[in-house]
Amino acid sequence: MTALLDEHPHLGVEPVLRELHIASSTYYRWRRQEQEPCERRRRDAELTEQIQRIHADSGGIYGSPRVHAVLRREGVHVGRKRVERLMREADLAGVSPRRKGFTRRDPKATLAPDLVNRDFTAPGPNRLWVTDLTMIPTGEGPLWLSAIRDAFSRRVVAWETSACADADLVLSSLEYALASREVEPGKLVHHADHGCQYTSIKLTTRLLRAGIEASMGSVGDSYDNALAENLWMLVKTECVRGRVFATRAEANLALFEYIDGFYNSRRIQQRLGYLSPIEFEEKHYTDQATAEQANLEPRHPALTS
After folding, report:
1. Among 2, 101, 120, 131, whose Cα sits 20 to 30 Å from the Cα of 212?
2. What secondary structure does DSSP assign to 79-100, as a single string?
3. Which tens digits make up the pLDDT trace of 183-192?
4. Which of 125, 127, 155, 181 is closest to 278 using CA atoms?
5. Where is the Integrase catalytic domain (predicted)?
6. Spatial separation of the C-alpha atoms in residues 157 and 258, rounded to whole Å
7. Distance of CA 274 to CAs 56, 76, 78, 115, 269, Å?
8. Judging by DSSP bridges, how do beta strands 213-216 and 189-192 pair with one another?
C-alpha cells in the first residue's frame, strides 16, 4: 500500500484509502512503522549484526547452538529460537561433518589390548590420549596429518604432517605431545587403531620408555576410536571444506590457523560447557588449585564457654 502511493502520489492518499476501505489511522501507523521501526525490529537488526560477526569469526562454522552460546558468553540474553530465526533470515548456517578413514592393519603385528572399550572420558588431562592419521590432498600430492587429542578436554595436544604416512610421522607427533605436556608414567593411556604405524616397533618402544600404556581399537571402526575420528570430521568440514591447496605448505598453514588459532583456543563445545579446550583445561586447573588451597587453610577450633 505505502509503496503504491509512493509510486503514484498524484492519486492522493485519502481517495485511495476510501476506495480500499482502509482507515487513515491504519495507513499512518504503517508509515510510522516504516520510518521508526518498532523496538523488536530494531533489536532483531542489532542481533543480526552480532550473529553475523560471530558466524564470520568462526569461519562460517558455527550453527545456531554455538552462536547462541557465544551471545550468552557476551552477556546477550536472547532465546535460542530467535537466534535460529535470525540466522535463517540472514541465510547463515553451520557446517556438518563427514568421515573417511585411511589407516591399514599389519596382519603380522602384535596388538595392544583395548583399554578404552569406547569410553572416551577421563578424570583429568593426560589420562587418555587418542590418535589417528588422515590425508589432506594438495597439488603436490597427499599431505598426511597425525594428531593426538586429549579425551578430557578434547584439546589437540600435538599434530604433525608429512608427505609419508609412516611410523616416523606418528612418533614425531608423540614426541611433540610428550614435550608439551606433563605426563606421569603409568597414568596415561595412548589409544589408536590397528594401523601399521601404531603397531610399529618404533612407536611401541617409545610408549614403553615413557611409561604410557598402549591401547587399540579395531581398524576401520569409527566407534572404537570415535574421538579421533571426530577430529577428522571437524578438520575436513571446518578447515578443508572443499578448498584446493596448491602446495603442502599452504595446507600446513591452513591447519595451523585452524587447530592452533581456532580449535584449541576459541572453538567452544557443548560437552565442555560451551568452553574451548584450552578454557576447559584452565578452568580445571583453577578449580583444582582452589580446592587444594581450601584444604591447606587452617581450621580454627570452635570456642567453648
Report:
1. 101
2. -HHHHHHHHHHTT---------
3. 999 999 999 9
4. 155
5. 121-285
6. 14
7. 18, 15, 16, 29, 5
8. parallel
Torsion of CA 205, 219, 105, 238, to 10 degrees: -90
Say if strands 143-150 and 128-136 run parallel, antiparallel, or are unpaired: antiparallel
Phi and psi torsions of 62, nearest 5°: -65, 135
| Residue whose C-alpha cell is 583453577 | 286
Residue 4, pLDDT > 80, answer no
Distance (Å, rounded) from C-alpha 146 to C-alpha 136? 11
| Cβ neighbours for 237, distance < 8 A, ≥ 6 positions apart | 61, 95, 96, 97, 98
CA distance 233 to 149: 14
CA distance 274 to 267: 9
Tell me the percentage of the chain whose pLDDT exceeds 70. Answer: 79
Sheet holding 143-150, edge to edge: 156-162, 143-150, 128-136, 189-192, 213-216
- Tens digits of per-residue pLDDT, 146-174? 999 999 999 999 999 999 888 999 999 99
Cα distances from 230 to residues 45, 54, 57, 68, 259, in angstroms, run: 36, 23, 22, 23, 14
| CA-based torsion, 59, 64, 70, 71: positive or negative | positive
More confident residue, 229 or 282: 282
